[in-house]
């Protein structure tokens, strides 16, 4: 679809209309403000804009602009809802969706550039982009213009807020008289002791020392300074972790761990219930996972497994002696909103967007409505009991009140409020000590690059992941097959992909 030809005409018409009209909405400082704007919002396959959300009702009270959702509630698939919207004759005023889709829509002329509007009408957006360079990068299209406003977690370039951490059975360490592991070797030795010395006391070697519920060995590779995905090497070049020497060494070591019974034989397949299965049966010893959910198991299984004490520990230093955490949150959440070519009130809309990045708007998204969702006690915002005691958990409850991922800053507060003491202690230790390793900044492949990627990428990563399983499980040894492996990925066009990734990355540098 290409909207480009008609875009400039539409803008010209809208400006003329704004100048000569005056009978619709209210006009302040020469900006016509409508009472209502339409919005397309349907994401994660279940979150659809709802006019009853108190958070957006409050925003309407403050800004004078009410949003009206345009998505039919009968569509449950977000991608389908988005495609359906695109073929309508008139696009909704505001389009909210993932940044790659909005980038494509902008290229096709469906969104208008926001640079001048931001300059003239949006001081808070300007400030946000100044404070949060990563957000500006995420918002900048390949043509250099800004077509949408993304959101961020913290609003500043705190670019490595930890997501996950290492958890270990402190009660097992105590029982076996072992210290918390601080290095890779110590971690290995502790986990081997878990396998061999029967910490659950049932006379069987049924312990599963190291387990994961998703991602296989991806997070474990960091102990060996290796990686499963793209990262910057020492020369500042983007490389895929599974092609590096460090990865070869990691696979050699991890195959040994696997053979010794340290790693869950079902690490690639156990799935989302791994923690429930292995902690409720007193078998799991150590994992790497999200702080808040993993810290909840001591309470959950207090009666089933007396003394269960599964707690976060400082990351064991990697083989180079570096204490670090590579699973960090993206600073931008990947969703954004923009102004469509059919919007007759671009100035008022950018001011509405700007509201959400003011202190008042950030607080509204982060904490909800004062009196309803939070109160200020001794100068601190404290969630109300209704929020704190929500059965579905605070983040889900607040989402249903309208705390959604739009172009603002906020959701970390809710998540922290929902953490128990164990989780908070671990999270704060990782965050305050800056263990998080900043991820590669966001960048966009252009159309040609995307075509090349689509042609080769899936086959390549599928091959690499299959080979990884063979090496870990000892079906093949890494030393005997590494050269052949590199030859195969070369033939599968790995280096071509590496080149386009570096070309795209170099454009944002
Ligand atoms: Ca046992």
Report on this model:
This protein has 509 residues and is an alpha+beta fold. The protein has two domains: 4-157 and 333-410, D-Maltodextrin-Binding Protein, domain 2; 161-329, D-Maltodextrin-Binding Protein, domain 2 (3-Layer(aba) Sandwich). Helix content is 43%, strand content 14%. The chain has 22 helices and 16 strands. The strands form five sheets. Strands 3, 4, 5, 6, 7 and 14 form a six-stranded mixed beta sheet that branches. Strands 9-12-8-13 form a four-stranded mixed beta sheet. A hairpin with a 2-residue loop joins β1 and β2 (31-33). α6 crosses α7 and α20 crosses α22 (494-508). The radius of gyration is 26 Å and the shape is globular. The chain starts with a helix and ends with a helix. Bound molecules: calcium ion (CA). Calcium ion is lined by residues 198, 200, 202, 204, 206-207.
Mean pLDDT level: 91
Q: Which radius of gyration do the C-alpha atoms yield? A: 26 Å
Count of the domains: 2
How would you describe the shape? globular
**Fourth-tier CATH superfamily name of the largest domain:** Periplasmic binding protein-like II
Instruction: Identify the CATH architecture of the largest domain.
Output: 3-Layer(aba) Sandwich
Strand fraction: 5-15%
CATH class of the largest domain: Alpha Beta
User: With helices defined by DSSP (H or I, 4 residues minimum), what is the helix count?
Assistant: 22
Structural class: alpha+beta
Span between termini: 31 Å
> Helical proportion?
40-55%
Low-confidence stretches: 5-27
Strand tally is 16
Reported by name, the CATH topology of the largest domain is D-Maltodextrin-Binding Protein, domain 2
Question: Largest beta sheet, briefly?
Answer: 6 strands, mixed
Q: What small ligands are held by the chains?
A: calcium ion
């Amino acid at each position: 679809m290409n909207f480009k030809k008609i875009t400039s005409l539409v803008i010209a018409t809208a400006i003329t209309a704004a100048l000569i009209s005056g009978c619709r909405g209210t006009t302040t400082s020469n900006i016509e403000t409508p009472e209502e704007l339409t919005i397309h919002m349907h994401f994660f396959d279940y979150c659809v804009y709802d006019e009853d959300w108190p958070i957006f009702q409050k925003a309407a009270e403050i800004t004078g602009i009410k949003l009206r959702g345009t998505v039919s509630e009968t569509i449950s698939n977000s991608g389908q809802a988005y495609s359906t919207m695109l073929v309508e004759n008139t696009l909704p005023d505001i389009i909210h969706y993932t940044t790659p889709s909005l980038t494509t829509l902008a290229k096709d002329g469906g969104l208008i550039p926001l640079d001048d509007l931001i300059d003239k009408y949006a001081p808070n957006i300007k400030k946000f982009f100044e404070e949060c360079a990563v957000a500006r990068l995420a918002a900048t299209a390949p043509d250099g213009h800004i077509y949408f406003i993304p959101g961020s977690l913290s609003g500043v370039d705190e670019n490595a807020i930890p997501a996950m951490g290492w958890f270990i059975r402190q009660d097992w360490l105590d029982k076996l008289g072992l210290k918390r592991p601080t290095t890779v070797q110590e971690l290995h030795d502790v986990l081997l002791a878990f396998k061999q010395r029967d910490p659950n006391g049932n006379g069987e070697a049924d312990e599963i020392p190291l387990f994961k519920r998703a991602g296989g060995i991806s997070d474990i590779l960091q102990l060996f300074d290796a990686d499963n995905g793209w990262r910057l090497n020492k020369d500042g070049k983007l490389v895929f972790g599974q092609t590096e020497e460090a990865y070869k060494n990691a696979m050699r070591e991890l195959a040994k761990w696997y053979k010794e019974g340290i790693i869950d034989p079902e690490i690639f397949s156990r799935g989302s219930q791994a923690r429930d299965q292995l902690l409720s049966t007193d078998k799991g010893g150590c994992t790497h996972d999200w702080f808040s959910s993993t810290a909840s198991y001591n309470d959950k299984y207090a009666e089933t497994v007396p003394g269960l004490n599964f707690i976060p520990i400082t990351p064991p230093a990697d083989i180079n002696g570096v204490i670090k955490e590579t699973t960090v949150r993206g600073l931008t959440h990947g969703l954004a909103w923009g102004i469509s070519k059919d919007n007759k009130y671009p100035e008022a809309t950018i001011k509405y967007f700007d509201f959400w990045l003011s202190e008042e708007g950030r607080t509204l998204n982060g904490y909800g409505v004062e009196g309803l969702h939070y109160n200020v006690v001794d100068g601190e915002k404290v969630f109300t009991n209704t929020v704190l005691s929500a059965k579905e958990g605070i983040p889900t409850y607040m989402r249903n009140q309208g705390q959604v991922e739009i172009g603002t800053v906020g959701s970390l507060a809710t998540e922290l409020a929902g953490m128990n003491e164990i989780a908070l202690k671990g999270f704060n230790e990782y965050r305050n000590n800056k263990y998080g390793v900043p991820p590669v900044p966001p960048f966009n492949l252009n159309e040609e690059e995307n075509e090349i990627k689509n042609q080769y990428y899936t086959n390549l990563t599928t091959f690499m992941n299959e080979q990884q399983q063979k090496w870990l499980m000892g079906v093949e040894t890494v030393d005997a097959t590494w050269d052949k492996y590199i030859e195969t990925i070369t033939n599968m066009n790995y280096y071509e992909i590496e080149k386009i990734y570096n070309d795209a990355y170099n454009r944002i540098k």
